[in-house]
Amino acid sequence: MINASQQNYLDFDALTQLKTKAKKDAKSTLKEVASEFETIFVKMMMKSMRSASFGDELFDSESAKFYRDMYDDQLSLDLSKNGGIGLADVLVRQLERYVPDQTPEHSEDNTSESNKAIDTTAVRADEKPNPEQNLFSSPKDFVHKLWPLAQDAAKELGTSPKVIIAQAALETGWGKHIIRNSDGSSSNNFFNIKADHRWDGKYSTIDSVEYIGNIPRRETADFRSYQSMEESFKDYVSFLKSNSRYEKALDVEKRESRYIEEIHAAGYATDPNYVKKIDRIINDKPLAEAMKTLPTGGQRGDLG
Question: Do 27 and 153 sit in the same domain of this protein?
Answer without folding.
Answer: no
